[in-house]
Amino acid sequence: MASEKQEPTILQMHDLRPAPGAKRDRIRVGRGEGSKGKTSGRGMKGTKARYQVRPGFEGGQLPLYMRLPKLRGFRSPFKKQYQVVNLNALSELFPKGGEITVDDLVKGGAVRKGCPVKVLGEGEVKSAFTLKGMKASATAKSKIEAAGGSISED
To answer: Large ribosomal subunit protein uL15/eL18 domain spans which residues (predicted)?
Structure first.
């Protein structure tokens, strides 16, 4: 007998079977006392034997969602949040005065890019500032104009 070559068997869809013990019948609980009937795996008495406990129920203890403080008030999503710069910071960054824009303040590190700027009146003004593209408080405006400067909110 010469070595006969056997054809390799190709696995086909109709040959597939689940592994032994992989498929078991489901247990039908609550269908008579002969087959998991009476308590149906819920044990004896108690809340969990009688009905489904709602989510968040802590056995009568004051639940977490009631212990935490409520969020009060309202926060408008359209509110403009200004970055503030005081006059003393302007005097330090630009001691000679001149025209100052928001980009100049960003380069100087006084404010971040992308937010509107408001100048407040804390500090003294020694030179004339010409502020462009920012707001100013009434005290800052009076001090800048007294020193010979101006403000435009374009």
So the answer is: 84-151
